[in-house]
Specification:
Layout: E1 9-11, E2 26-29, E3 35-37, E4 43-44, H1 47-55, H2 59-70
Antiparallel strand pairs: 1-2, 2-3, 3-4
Helix pairs in contact: 1-2
The protein binds zinc ion.
Zinc ion binds near residues 18, 26 and 37.
Length: about 70
Amino acid sequence: MPAPRGGGWRDGGLCPFHGDKHPGSFRVHLGTGAFICFACGAKGSDVIAFVQMRDALSFPESLRKIGEEWGLS
Ligand SMILES: [Zn+2]
């Protein structure tokens, strides 16, 4: 799915940070990777913050994990 120019907020599906049953409360910004959940208040400015919260990792651990998941390392 190609990201539209300039990104924008999109439905991120179910929030991974609480027992989400209502798609639509969790939004992701395609341009920056920022995310926010209007139901539980989870938010962050980029994908690194997302992985840190999702997996309860430190900043360097998150970087390593993203690199492994995306095949960057
Ligand atoms: Zn949530």
